[in-house]
Specification:
single chain; 745 residues; mainly beta; 24-stranded parallel sheet; 3 helices; Pectin_lyase_fold/virulence; Lipoprotein
Length: 745
């Protein structure tokens, strides 16, 4: 025993000597207490991995793989990265919770998708600052890299009950309208749409028979291979949805979906912006797809319409629909008898649809049935900002690069408060009516181009308001869209108020069919400053034409100044009763009278410049049916210039005339100063009673055969001749007209 121990000790000593010699030969012995270097590609010190952990930065954990089944309540961790490698199915009775900021990256094509069984729930709790993102794991991602999100519920569909979903093999459909599959908020799915075949692909998000107890809002599909978001029956609502770059339709609903939707922003889809259908096998299947949609934007181009009303369509009510850069708004396939029947029955109603930047060959619809009134145009904001990214999409979406439209169509009705943008060129294609209680604001520098003859005009109802906020440097211009514009290309501006007229109360305007006239002398129809209207005066008949601006019973609470009519087909500016004042007015090249007032107008006017009118410079009358009607037209005018030639006088005192006091009246190139028809006994009686007073009036450069008046009565003292400056510079352009007017020579 002792001998063996001795041998062990000697052996150990020999080994130690050898080691010592080796250390001496090969360098110093290892440090018995190494320090973490964090940068030498060696795990040392307190590092728990190579150059990480311990006193170094934390080690990056490998992604957590997701696949298989979720059979109990499970919550993911936003601090971890998840890799979806196969199907990940939340089984009935279980719930999956995904917190804000979680990212799931998928690979595996059709094998990789997230499915939620009927009876299961998913809670996606993203925020605008930290959305949940489901995307591709490919370093160069593309549409179709993985499946998508598939949710099955127990709500009704017209495909029946216990139906198998076309992707994911999930059973769906039942009778629980308020079925609750959880809550999905602030979710973005990217590069979905993996393909089984030409007829079978995943969508970004597919909702099969999902019930109204489910929350589905603030969801985006980005660059999906098939539809972005699709509702297959069910009752769930979908709000604040975004679909960008879908390989098929952007948002699709079918199979008896009876939910509603609001605030949808759609751009860059390959086919339809929205495809809405009832049932591909039976267009009359029940329950019928029935929905109310509002605040919708579709930015093209599209190949199957902004809305494809398909396979029976359904009962759709859509309001505030903004469509930009499309060639077709509402597509209906020829031969789709159930869809046509529903349109004829009034089951498709679209109000306030606006067309911006229309593509070449644009059509509002290719539906050829009798009911062409299923849509009405209006001014729409769509999802919030027209074609531009809506405010509510900021921060959590991607790919919304569309700027605001450069042009928009105007037509229809305005019922709320609407403001145009000076950066947009507007095309007035039909009547645009501001309804009672509504208002239209047009900022400085805005241009509106009109086409459509008598159908195209802007009307402001009694009780509505218009605010035209031009400036001398940037007037508002309403003109013709024709490349060769001329008088009568469109109607004009028509404003109706509640002030008194001698035509009575609740009278219908001769153009625009607006009701006007009341007892509110200070009625306020808004404010019009620095406005130029051009090529107006579209003609219904020899006796019925639009004026440039027509003011019917407009009250003194309204501001009306710095307004020009240029080359209108009828009168330039006309006051039909009312009490509004008109200052700094210009009328050039009117096809009838330049400025006209009648029907008991009791406003005043100053600084009027008139030239090139076909008939009277100013036509002032009381009432064409009764020259003595009350209230009598009564006005004080000052600083007036009329440049001829004229054919009916610088002033035509007509149909009872009225009580006129005019000072500083300058005429040039006229052959007749004041015209009074010999048979107008009411007008003559007023002149004899000194109701017409003009002082001083100047007749510069009188035309051949000039007479200052053709009135043959006893009172020839109603006018006094004397020098004056008229509107400011005699026949020359007044200083106040510089910059914002055209055609003053």
């Amino acid at each position: 025993m002792k001998k063996s121990l001795l041998k062990f000790v000697l052996s150990f000593a020999s080994a130690a000597l050898v080691v010592s010699c080796m250390s001496d030969d090969n360098g110093p012995a290892p440090d018995p207490d190494p320090v973490a270097t964090c940068s030498d590609n060696i795990q040392n010190g307190d590092e728990t991995g190579v150059d990480c952990g311990g006193s170094c930065t934390a080690c990056v954990e490998p992604p957590v793989e997701l696949s298989g089944e979720v059979t109990e309540d499970t919550e993911l961790d936003a601090s971890k990265e998840y890799l979806l490698t196969g199907s990940y199915i939340v089984k009935a009775g279980a719930a999956l919770t995904i917190p804000a900021g979680t990212t799931i990256k998928a690979s595996g094509g059709t094998a990789a998708f997230v499915g939620v069984e009927r009876g299961a729930q998913i809670f996606i709790n993203g925020t605008a600052a930290a959305p949940v993102i489901m995307t591709s794991n490919d370093p160069t991602p593309d549409a179709g890299d993985w499946g998508g999100l598939v949710i099955a519920g127990d709500a009704p569909t017209n495909k029946g009950e216990n139906v198998l979903s076309e992707v994911g093999d999930l059973t769906y459909g039942g009778s629980t309208a308020d079925d609750d599959s959880g809550s999905i908020t602030y979710l973005r799915v990217e590069y979905t749409g993996a393909t089984f075949s030409n007829d079978k692909e995943f969508n970004g998000v597919s909702l099969f028979g999902v019930g109204s107890g489910t929350t589905f809002e603030y969801v985006q599909s980005f660059n999906g291979g098939d539809d972005g978001i699709e509702f297959f029956g069910g009752t769930v609502d979908g709000n604040y949805l975004v679909s960008i770059g879908s390989g098929d339709d952007s948002i699709d609903f079918a199979d008896g979906w009876t939910g509603s939707g609001s605030n949808w922003y759609i751009a860059g889809g390959a086919k339809a912006g929205i495809e809405g259908s009832n049932n591909g096998d039976n267009g009359n299947a029940t329950p019928v797809t029935t929905t109310t949609l509002s605040n919708i934007t579709v930015v093209g181009p599209v190949t199957e319409g902004a809305l494809f009303f398909k396979e029976g369509g359904g009962n759709f009510t859509i309001d505030n629909f903004y469509a930009s850069d499309i060639d077709l708004a509402v597509h209906v396939t020829d031969g789709d008898t159930p869809a046509a029947t529903r349109i004829e029955n009034g089951d498709l109603v679209i109000t306030n649809i606006q067309f911006a930047d229309p593509a070449t060959g644009f059509e509002a619809t290719d539906y050829t049935g009798l009911n062409q009134a299923f849509y009405t145009e209006g001014i729409a904001t769509g999802a919030g900002n027209g074609a531009a990214s809506p405010d509510w999409a900021a921060g959590w979406t991607t790919g919304l690069e569309n700027s605001a439209s450069s042009s928009e169509n105007l037509a229809g009705e305005i019922t709320g408060d609407v403001e145009l943008s000076a950066s947009v060129e507007y095309f007035l294609t039909s009547g645009l009516i501001v309804k009672a209680g509504g208002s239209l604001t047009i900022p400085a520098g805005t241009t509106i181009k009109a086409s459509g003859g008598t159908a195209a005009f802007i009307g402001v109802e009694r009780g509505a308001q218009i605010f035209i906020n031009g400036t001398a440097a940037a007037p508002v211009v309403m003109t013709s869209s024709s490349e060769t514009p001329e008088q009568g290309n469109w109607g004009g501006l028509v404003i109706a108020g509640d002030a008194p007229t001698n035509k009575g109360v609740n009278v219908l305007s001769e153009v625009g069919d607006l009701t006007y006239g009341g007892n509110t002398a200070d009625d306020d129809s808004g404010s019009i400053t620095y406005l130029r209207v051009e090529y107006t005066g579209a003609t219904f008949s020899n006796e019925k034409e639009f004026n440039g601006v027509s003011l019917f019973g407009v009250g003194s609470g309204t501001t009306f100044e710095y307004v020009q009519s240029y080359k209108g087909g009828d009168d330039g500016i006309e006051f039909f009763g009312g009490t509004v004042n008109g200052n700094y007015l210009v009328s050039i090249g009117s096809g009838d009278d330049s400025i006209d007032f009648a029907d008991g107008w009791t406003g005043n006017g100053s600084n009027w410049y008139i030239a090139g009118g076909a008939k009277a410079g100013i036509e002032g009358s009381n009432n064409g049916d009764d020259g003595d009607a009350t209230p009598v037209t009564t006005t004080t005018l000052s600083n007036i210039t009329v440049v001829g030639p004229v054919t009916e006088g610088a002033l035509f005192f007509k149909e009872g005339g009225g009580n006129f006091t005019i000072t500083n009246f300058y005429t040039s190139g006229v052959d007749l100063g004041v015209n009074v028809t010999g048979t107008d006994t009411a007008a003559a009686a007023r002149i004899e009673a000194d109701a017409l007073s003009i002082t001083p009036i100047q007749f510069a450069s009188p035309a051949l055969g000039f007479v200052n008046t053709n009135y043959a009565g006893l009172n020839q003292d109603f006018l006094t001749v004397g020098d004056n400056t008229g509107a400011g510079n005699g026949a020359g352009e007044p200083d106040w007209a510089a910059g914002w007017t055209v055609g003053i020579e």
